[in-house]
Specification:
- The complex is a heterodimer of chains A (288) and B (390).
- By secondary structure, chain A is α/β, with parallel strands linked by helices.
- Chain A is built from nine helices and 14 strands.
- In chain A, helix 6 packs parallel to helix 7.
- Chain A is globular.
- Chain B has 390 residues and is an alpha+beta fold.
- Chain B folds into three domains: 154 residues, D-amino Acid Aminotransferase, Chain A, domain 1 (2-Layer Sandwich); 81 residues, Dna Ligase, domain 1, CATH 3.30.1490; 147 residues, Succinyl-CoA synthetase domains (Rossmann fold).
- Chain B is 36% helix and 25% strand.
- In chain B, helix 2 packs antiparallel against helix 3, helix 5 packs across helix 6 and helix 10 packs across helix 11.
- The two termini of chain B are 42 Å apart.
- Classes of the chains: A alpha/beta (288), B alpha+beta (390).
- The interface between A and B is large, with 62 and 56 residues.
Chain lengths: 288, 390
């Protein structure tokens, strides 16, 4: 088992014929992902990487039965492309694009209400269920099947944690980066609930960062309802207040946004908080 | 992106949000002639810098003497203004705003922002104006009113009335605030703002509501569709090194430590800084080279990091996903050769094509300190910065 994606997922790429999408579609297929086609408006009817290209997501879904879409659509058009995927009934939308205007995401999230769709990103490395399905841009060779559910904001810090886990022989059920934007598709809480319900996941690692209160809200739910151990790391203990640390959402806007405040709040909610970024693997080993 | 108060007020005027009569001045002479043209007998002179706390820092003066407008403007323009938010170095004042002084009956707080909690634009208001809103929120949370805006229908009249009632406005002022808020929301939405803060919003003796201050910032990701807003950017208010870095698609923030950092990905960059601190050192900067780090980007990253004289070692931590370690390694070798870098460089490579990357570094014959893991890299970088070997 796993969450969000597995070997039955039928994956399309939006912005399919672009350079990055092409590269990552091929990489995904190499590890066995069932890629069924792609969408590039104006190029419908063509073949790309041996797969059909469609003008609209709606056509792609009707022809291929796609249920996962990975977006490599440039920022000015990305909000619209997400709306199109929601409208077409895609179940899991993974938005790789970095730089989507915040208010476009506000509108996307409004439109999403009442649709049975989960959005990962924008500005995400994506989702991977090792050896089954890769809907993202992560280096898939470092991910191994196993009992840990991983959810992070950052992509590269997700890789770092996974490498530490590999050294200790700990694999992943599914690994997800939710992205670094202030208004993002799904939050930590949504993913924790899914991991809690997934029989293949024995423990969960949450990698947060400065800014916002998502980590604390997720931990509050976990304390009451989650039946699996939860470990967390919060990046940005050395970040100065008021400065945007690369991610659009990584900014300390108030006292409760700091890494220290979040780590303390999480500890009070019985989360195993990792204080040293290099100790993530070790902490998880103790939990399973 | 932030803009100045006078620029925000000009934008407010376009949306018919009331602001005091006034204009920006670049010289003391201009300040005087602006004051002469403004109705009334009292004026306010305000330093225009991108930092708050100007009142506390001596960057603001109310006077009924025209001559004082000129002397105060003369003193401010060209001076370093230090406020609680500028840091000890302060900011150079290049211009002042000269406005008609108002007869204030009460001060309120008002802001619109992207609210991470509701994932929508929210209006926040309080009857405790002129104070730090964080302080109000901590001490008297009941005094803060909050309304999230449904983007499909926009800010509604009833929400504005709730806000007006919540901050204690009565009678005609409830309608006045409704109009003001709806125009302000359009200003926020149309320009892809990230924050509009009016602190204080004043109720005058004659009952009118007016924005005495205006702070506004914009979503960098949406500037592509707002060339008019992009033109308002003031490079004098930004760290020249950060401007230089952003020109090369690098995200750089200077800090006070002595271990330079070059990392890919914002999360890993923060975690690397944290690890340096965990092992007793202090990071000199945040630097994210992003995806697709070309040799040219790596070279620029080294140049910018090493431009800081406090940097005594550089930790390069790359976990390649979209990036490739062999390309990164070529960039490192080229940068160290071209820039004749003598500072100790600690390199930690992982991910895509790591073996090829390591082979390139080994074949270069250059003097690196290699590290396989994050903790090892952080320890070595801290030791090297202190002139020790780990």
């Amino acid at each position: 088992m796993s969450i969000l994606v597995d070997k039955r997922s039928r994956v399309i790429f939006q912005g399919f014929t672009g350079q990055h999408a092409s590269f990552h579609a091929e990489e995904a297929m190499r590890i066995g992902t069932r890629v069924v086609g792609g969408v590039t408006p104006g190029k419908g009817g063509q073949q790309h990487l041996g797969l059909p290209v469609f003008d609209t997501v709606d056509a792609a879904v009707r022809e291929t039965g796609a249920d996962v879409s990975v977006l490599f659509v440039p920022p000015p058009f990305c909000g619209d492309a997400i709306l199109e995927a929601i409208d077409a009934g895609i179940g899991v939308i993974v938005v790789i694009t970095d730089g989507v205007p915040t208010q476009d995401m506000v509108r996307v999230k409004r439109y999403q209400i009442g649709h049975d769709t989960l959005i990962v990103g924008p500005n995400t490395a994506g989702v991977i269920t090792p050896n089954q399905c890769k809907a993202g841009i992560m280096p898939s060779h470092i991910y191994q099947p196993g009992p840990i559910g991983v959810v992070s904001r950052s992509g590269t810090l997700n890789y770092e944690a996974v490498e530490q886990m590999n050294e200790l022989g700990l694999g992943q059920s599914t690994s997800i980066s939710i992205g670094g934007d202030p208004v993002n598709g799904c939050d930590f809480l949504t993913i924790l609930k899914k991991f809690d319900a997934d029989p293949a996941t024995e423990a969960v690692l949450m990698i947060g960062e400065i800014g916002g209160q998502q980590e604390v809200e997720a931990a509050r739910w976990a304390k009451e309802h989650m039946n699996k151990p939860l470990a967390a790391f919060i990046a940005g203990a050395t970040a100065p207040p008021g400065r945007r640390m690369g991610h659009a959402g990584a900014i300390i806007s108030g006292a409760s946004d700091t890494a220290q405040a979040k780590m303390e709040a999480l500890e009070q909610l019985d989360v195993s908080v990792v204080r040293n970024a290099a100790g993530i693997g070790g902490t998880l080993k103790k939990l399973v | 992106m932030n803009i100045h108060e006078y620029q925000a007020k000009e934008l407010f005027r376009k949306y018919r949000v009331p602001v005091p009569e006034g204009h920006v001045a670049h010289t003391a002479g201009q300040a005087l002639s602006i004051a002469e043209q403004i109705d009334g007998e009292r004026w306010v002179v305000k330093a225009q810098i991108h930092a708050g706390g100007r009142g506390k820092g001596g960057g603001m003066k109310v006077t009924n003497q025209l001559a004082e407008v000129e002397t105060f403007a003369d003193r401010l323009i060209g001076s370093h203004l230090v406020t609680p938010q500028t840091g000890p170095a302060g900011r150079i004042v290049h211009r002042v705003l000269v406005e008609q002084a108002q007869d204030i009956a009460h001060e309120y707080y008002l802001s619109l922002l992207i609210d991470r909690g509701s994932q929508r634009v929210s209006v926040i208001a309080s009857d405790a104006g002129g104070m730090d809103i964080e302080e109000v929120a901590a001490k008297t949370p009941g005094k803060i009113v909050r309304e999230a805006v449904d983007p499909a229908i926009g800010l509604q009249d009833f929400q504005c009335r709730k806000i007006a009632h919540g901050i204690g406005l009565r009678g005609k002022q409830i309608h006045a605030l409704t109009g003001l808020l709806k125009r302000l929301y359009r200003c926020f939405r149309d320009n892809d703002a990230q924050l509009i803060e009016i602190n204080p919003l004043a109720r005058l003796d004659d009952g009118r509501l007016i924005a005495l201050d205006a702070k506004m910032s914009f979503d960098d990701n949406a500037l592509f569709r707002h060339p008019d807003i992009t033109d308002l950017r003031d490079f004098d208010e930004e760290d020249p090194k950060e401007v230089d870095a952003s020109g090369h698609d690098l995200s750089y923030i200077a800090l006070d430590g002595n271990v330079g950092c070059i990392v890919n990905g914002a999360g890993l960059a923060m975690a690397t800084m944290d690890a340096i601190s965990y092992y007793g050192g202090l990071p000199a900067n945040f630097l994210d080279v992003g995806g697709g780090a070309s040799p040219e980007k790596i070279a620029n990253a080294f140049r910018i990091v090493l431009d800081d004289p406090n940097v005594h070692s550089v930790l390069l931590n790359i976990f390649a996903g979209i990036n490739r370690c062999d390309w990164i390694a070529e960039g490192i070798v080229q940068a160290i050769r071209d820039q004749q870098i003598g500072t100790p460089v600690i390199v930690r490579l992982a991910g895509t094509n790591v073996e090829r990357g390591k082979a390139i570094l080994a074949a270069s014959g250059l003097d690196f300190i290699e590290a396989d893991k994050l903790d090892d890299a952080a320890r070595k970088a801290v030791a090297a910065a202190n002139g020790e070997t780990a």
